[in-house]
Backbone:
């Protein structure tokens, strides 16, 4: 269950994304393969904003994968770097842009903030005493 | 088979063999040919007429090239062979071995030359961690092609493909276990073949992944000898009176050259940790190496900073112990990383790398004047500074702490003393988590002060600078209140989660001097402890002082001596003007390095020098290691008292006795190139009459 890459990208927040490096800009094309067809998603990244369009134009970085792999990215289940290592995802062009996908797509669901562990440790002592 | 190991290195590609040049898989030692954390050859054994070879001598020409001179037959008292063999191997992205056979007799020699070959495509991380065990893996497929004179070994798991291709220039009979050459060598004649091994990481359309990466296409290999020559020529030249010091210096520079690699998806060389287990980018090792070498090989630093910024944490992720803004602990490319068996593809379990990233960025600007880099990396640097308080302060008491969220594979102690039992009190009790080790507070303090300078001078944000300075001052006050053990006159190794001090005396207090968080009126007590009998072994400062229950001279972080640790400690002592203390440490480490010869090991045992007379090496200690080789350079810089001030290099030497004259010429920096001259007390007294 959960979202798909298509839905995630269609609904992507068009506002400022303070976690994207201000100095980084470029274009990334995601080629999603399914049943012999390819869907193209074209991401234009500049000034901490991401604009998503549908285009097969050439981009600074072209990322190809099965739709299922990209859906995994959109759900935070797949790490873009390990997908590359597994060859589930292939790249052409300026690969330095690849890690931006780590910030554009969500992290894993249910991840804990480190402070939760700190709070649990302090609560553990209070419970003990 | 002898215990001796011979290696050739080119970045993260390396081959380890025995003294004959043969590679035979052995437990606990990563023997074979490796690249990108994968073994591409585990068996590589040469025989002639069914017999092994006996080594006469060896020429380690450079770090990437070795020649073995051999004769047939196993060791005997008297070797009188008619045939001799030269194996000349070299490594870059691929591996090459030229086998030359010489017939010294007046009759033709008819020989059967055999090279046995095989591979398991093991992940280096699995070899390092044999206790973990592994599930069943697919077997390698072998294709022998005599017509093309090639043997292909291929490993596939889903789309993950690694391939070793061995070709021979001389005709051979190829079978699934190697190549056989039936040859005749004329009297006084010779025969030779080049065995070439390519190591392929399959990417799209069965091409090598690396060919798809623009950065790798642009990266022209070749000319490695020229590259090494240029690397050495760019570094300052050392002229030293002390015997062997110049050789040790050049050896360290060459080790650092060997341990550079170009990561996938990158266009510049960064340091790997070291041979054999950490031939990968490790955030801590690479940052420390850069800090050690800025005065000598500054080109490592911008490449490392940019790479670490690129891989800066972007999400909360328990498996990878990742948080936004955190700087990487380790980057690996092996099978276990790819399939998530281990989190080390991109692993962030380190609490020190993030503040040290900021420290390195500031330090680099002080030396280079490269303000463009400071502006380029403003965003990652601010994210790193924000991380310290937002994600690093786990209990809200203002201290930088760690506790792993990946409880299966995560690193337990996320500081430089990363062995599982490293953080313990004098009685051996280990504190609960989250833990705040003392040196982390020093790094955070230093990062805030340096971040403030960057914000004020380059980012045009004085309000942010004021805030960081205020936080740093508060941290220093708090730290000196909570970590100081007044009755023992040193800082606690750590605080547990409830603020309870871990009372061990450890080398970590030396890092506090380096970071400047030590109150001035306490520095002397700290300095005295560092060179006192409990911490100082005679070769260097022990990680953990003797006389405490967990102390163990062969325990990596519970008594052994690390050159990298000592480099930072000596620099810290000089910050606080304990010049004689610093000189003692520098002298001990240089004595150790020169006594052992060759690359400086990562760590030596903490035995008393007067007891063993010789530095005792630990079997687990790798060499070369970038931050050990770098430590010698840092110690040299510390003895010379090199410090950039404005646009000039300040030189304020304090040499140990016995070093005589030392000159370091053409030190690079914002001043262009400049020289530093120094002499110990004996040389200055000798030179005084000449000055009059």
Residues:
């Amino acid at each position: 269950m959960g979202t798909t890459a298509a839905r995630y990208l269609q609904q992507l927040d068009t506002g400022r994304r303070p976690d994207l490096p201000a100095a980084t800009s470029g274009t990334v094309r995601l080629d999603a393969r399914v049943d012999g067809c390819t869907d193209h998603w074209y991401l234009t990244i500049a000034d901490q904003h991401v604009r998503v369009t549908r285009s097969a134009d050439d981009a600074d970085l072209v990322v190809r994968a099965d739709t299922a792999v990209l859906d995994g990215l959109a759900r935070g289940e797949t790490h873009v770097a390990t997908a590359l290592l597994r060859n589930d995802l292939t790249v052409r062009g300026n690969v330095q842009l690849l890690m931006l996908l780590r910030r554009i797509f969500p992290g894993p669901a249910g991840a804990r903030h480190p402070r939760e562990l700190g709070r649990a440790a302090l609560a553990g002592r209070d419970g003990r005493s | 088979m002898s215990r001796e190991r011979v290696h050739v290195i080119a970045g993260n590609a390396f081959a380890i063999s025995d003294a004959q040049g043969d590679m035979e898989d052995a437990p606990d030692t990563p023997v074979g040919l490796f690249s990108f954390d994968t073994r591409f050859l585990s068996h590589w054994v040469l025989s002639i007429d069914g017999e092994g070879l006996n080594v006469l001598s060896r020429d380690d020409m450079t770090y990437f090239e070795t020649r073995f001179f051999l004769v047939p037959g196993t060791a005997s008292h008297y070797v009188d062979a008619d045939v001799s063999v030269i194996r000349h191997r070299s490594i870059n992205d691929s591996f090459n071995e030229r086998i030359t056979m010489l017939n010294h007799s007046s009759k033709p020699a008819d020989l059967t030359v055999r090279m046995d070959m095989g591979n398991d495509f093991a992940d280096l991380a699995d070899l390092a961690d044999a206790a973990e065990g592994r599930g069943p893996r697919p077997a390698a497929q072998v294709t022998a092609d005599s017509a093309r004179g090639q043997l292909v070994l291929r490993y596939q798991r889903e789309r993950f493909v690694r391939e070793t291709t061995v070709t021979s220039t001389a005709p051979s009979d190829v079978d699934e276990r190697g190549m056989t050459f039936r040859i005749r060598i004329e009297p006084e004649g010779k025969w030779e073949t080049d065995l070439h091994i390519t190591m392929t990481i399959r990417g799209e359309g069965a091409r090598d992944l690396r060919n798809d990466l623009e950065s790798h296409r642009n990266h022209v290999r070749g000319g490695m000898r020229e590259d090494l020559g240029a690397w050495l020529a760019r570094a300052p030249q050392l002229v030293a009176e002390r015997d062997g010091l110049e050789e040790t210096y050049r050896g360290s520079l060459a080790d650092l050259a060997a341990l550079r690699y170009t990561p996938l998806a990158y266009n510049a060389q960064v340091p790997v940790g070291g041979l054999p287990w950490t031939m990968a980018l490790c955030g801590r090792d690479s940052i420390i190496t850069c800090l050690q070498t800025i005065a000598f090989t500054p080109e490592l630093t911008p490449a490392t900073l940019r790479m670490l910024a690129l891989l800066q944490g972007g999400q909360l992720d328990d498996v990878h112990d990742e948080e936004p803004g955190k700087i990487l602990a380790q980057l690996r490319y092996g099978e276990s990383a790819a399939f998530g068996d281990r989190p080390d593809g991109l692993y962030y379990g380190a609490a020190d790398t993030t503040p040290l990233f900021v420290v390195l960025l500031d330090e680099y600007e002080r030396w280079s004047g490269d303000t463009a880099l400071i502006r380029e990396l403003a965003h990652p640097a601010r994210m790193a500074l924000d991380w310290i308080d937002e994600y690093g302060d786990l209990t809200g008491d203002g201290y930088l702490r760690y506790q792993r969220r990946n409880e299966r594979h995560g690193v337990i102690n996320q500081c430089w003393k990363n062995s599982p039992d490293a953080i313990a009190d004098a009685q051996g009790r280990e504190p609960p988590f989250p833990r705040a080790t003392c040196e982390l507070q020093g790094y955070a303090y230093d990062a805030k002060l340096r971040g403030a300078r960057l914000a004020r001078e380059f980012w045009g944000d004085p309000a942010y600078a004021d805030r960081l300075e205020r936080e740093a001052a508060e941290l220093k006050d708090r730290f000196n209140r909570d970590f100081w053990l007044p009755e023992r006159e040193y800082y606690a190794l750590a605080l547990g989660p409830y603020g309870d001090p871990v009372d061990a005396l450890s080398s970590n207090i030396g890092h506090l001097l380096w970071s400047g968080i030590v109150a001035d009126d306490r520095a002397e007590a700290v300095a005295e402890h560092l060179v006192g009998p409990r911490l100082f072994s005679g070769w260097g400062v022990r990680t953990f002082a003797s006389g405490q229950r967990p102390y163990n001279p062969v325990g990596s972080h519970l008594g052994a001596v690390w050159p990298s640790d000592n480099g930072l400690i000596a620099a810290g002592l000089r910050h606080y003007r304990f010049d004689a203390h610093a000189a003692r440490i520098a002298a001990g480490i240089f004595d150790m390095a020169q006594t052992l010869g060759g690359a400086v090991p990562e760590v030596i045992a903490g035995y008393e020098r007067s007891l063993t007379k010789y530095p005792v090496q630990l079997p687990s200690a790798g060499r070369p290691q970038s931050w050990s080789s770098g430590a010698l350079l840092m110690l040299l810089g510390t003895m010379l008292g090199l410090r950039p001030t404005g646009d000039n290099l300040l030189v304020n030497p304090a040499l140990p006795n016995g070093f005589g004259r030392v000159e370091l010429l053409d030190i690079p920096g914002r001043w262009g190139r400049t020289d530093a001259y120094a002499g110990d007390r004996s040389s200055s007294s000798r030179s005084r009459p000449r000055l009059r």
